[in-house]
Amino acid sequence: MTSLPMIQISPDASSAAGKPARASMPPRHLADLALPDRQALVAELGEPAFRARQVSTHYFGRLVRDPAQMTDLPAATRDRITDALLPTLLTPVRELACDDGATRKALWRLHDGSMVESVLMGYPDRVTVCISSQAGCGMACPFCATGQAGLTRNLSTAEIVDQAVYLAGVAASGAVAGSPPRLSHVVFMGMGEPLANYSRVIAAIRRLCAPAPEGLGLSQRHITVSTVGLVPAIRRLTGEDLSVTLALSLHAPDDDLRDELVPVNQRWKVAEVLDAAWEYADRTGRRVSIEYAMIKDVNDQPWRADLLGRLLAGRLTHVNLIPLNPTPGSRWDASPKPVEREFVRRLREAGVSTTVRDTRGREIDGACGQLAAAEVAT
């Protein structure tokens, strides 16, 4: 493999790798604001402060986004109030479904023309949405469609939250047959590196978990935040007093290979990244999820399974092996099933809890960034 360039990361790892391209942030939305700030905004319009609670209850409590359905607001001022609190952030470009409707992928156009993706996945016992935290990604992992596209900009808190609220409404409509009608889980595994948009992602988590009408009322324990290993940001997250699951996209147990598959490893090596993850597990009591994309003849050798097992044995962790969903024209391919099974066997033999991720959405460009890339190419 050819060595990839070093990624530049700010010392506190709270901004994106490199600098996002100049792009205007979206208009202020109620999901950007705490309830008292929403009330102050409504008061500035000359309206009673309680109108902010009414609109917030519609949005977060009833998953209603259409002002025409907010009949408890005065008709004469309804548009003015909702224009101030509920500007359009996400415009649907394409919505695709597969797995008998249990998997639904949405491609959104943002106010500046940037595009992001979200996925809703229904299961018999839960409904999960996978949301984006950035338009594009600056981490440059070569096997990832989003990484190939580069970074456009960070998303606002409300742009992040609005993806979950929209898809919660889809679930509540009964569109996902065989699944509960209520969104229960959110994973920050869509486009972007969540911890590179640190402050807005943390604000979005708090909004998603606050009870309505302040927020969506999800359990912190049902939120998963993925990272390629921004060590200062992981340590910062450890101090947030949150009980979310940390998912570490490791993809290789050795520095030589991880330097190429996950270029940020050139800054923070495997041992340092894992140490930060174990600090998070020790502080929160939450099991760390190790994400590992199985790539044919690249990172799926038995000796790498054994090395990974030695690194993780005895730790509060779980390995989530991911069959690679190849991007069009990519030289990367998924590991054969017998190779995958042997990798699982060796990890379990080392005492490491291991599962293989359910493959969803392959026929609808399910890998993150594929739908956006296809739209740009047309």
UniProtKB/TrEMBL annotation:
UniProt-annotated location(s): Cytoplasm
Region of interest: Disordered: 1-25
Enzyme class: transferase
Residue positions binding S-adenosyl-L-methionine: 192-193, 226, 249-251, 325
SUPFAM superfamilies found in the cross-reference section: Radical SAM enzymes
One biological process term in Gene Ontology: rRNA base methylation
Catalytic activity field: adenosine(2503) in 23S rRNA + 2 reduced [2Fe-2S]-[ferredoxin] + 2 S-adenosyl-L-methionine = 2-methyladenosine(2503) in 23S rRNA + 5'-deoxyadenosine + L-methionine + 2 oxidized [2Fe-2S]-[ferredoxin] + S-adenosyl-L-homocysteine; adenosine(37) in tRNA + 2 reduced [2Fe-2S]-[ferredoxin] + 2 S-adenosyl-L-methionine = 2-methyladenosine(37) in tRNA + 5'-deoxyadenosine + L-methionine + 2 oxidized [2Fe-2S]-[ferredoxin] + S-adenosyl-L-homocysteine
Positions bound to [4Fe-4S] cluster: 137, 141, 144
Any one annotated GO CC term: cytoplasm
Coarse class of the protein's main subcellular location: cytoplasm
GO MF annotation terms: 4 iron, 4 sulfur cluster binding; metal ion binding; rRNA (adenine(2503)-C2-)-methyltransferase activity; rRNA binding; tRNA (adenine(37)-C2)-methyltransferase activity; tRNA binding
SMART domains the UniProt entry points to: Elp3
Gene3D superfamilies xrefs: 1.10.150.530, Aldolase class I (3.20.20.70)
Domain Radical SAM core, first and last residues per copy: 123-363
Cofactor comment: Binds 1 [4Fe-4S] cluster. The cluster is coordinated with 3 cysteines and an exchangeable S-adenosyl-L-methionine.
Note: Reaction proceeds by a ping-pong mechanism involving intermediate methylation of a conserved cysteine residue.
Record-given protein name: Probable dual-specificity RNA methyltransferase RlmN
Organism: Micromonospora pisi
High-level lineage: Bacteria, Bacillati, Actinomycetota, Actinomycetes, Micromonosporales
